[in-house]
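Why do we care about 3D structure at all? Because function follows from shape, and shape follows, mostly, from sequence. That is the central idea of this module. The next example makes it concrete: a single protein chain, its amino acid sequence, and then its structure expressed as tokens.
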Amino acid sequence: MDNINWMELIPIIIPSVTTFLFAVLAWVFKKRTDSLTGLCKEVSEFVLKIVDASKDKKFTQSEMNDIIKEAQDVIEEARKLMAKG
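And the structure:
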């Protein structure tokens, strides 16, 4: 137990923490007004992409591209919401 290899735990810890944070954000957005529905949907899709990609603890290039695309969708939806606001 004294020889914990932290580098092996990084592929497990980072997606887990990220997924938890985005799940909390999605829940907060969902509890807010209906104007956040689109953003909530995009954040939920983003979290699902991260969870799906991290299941095997290895990220492929196509999985990373999908995650980046979903992140861009979240940003675009946030910009639309800011423009309305």
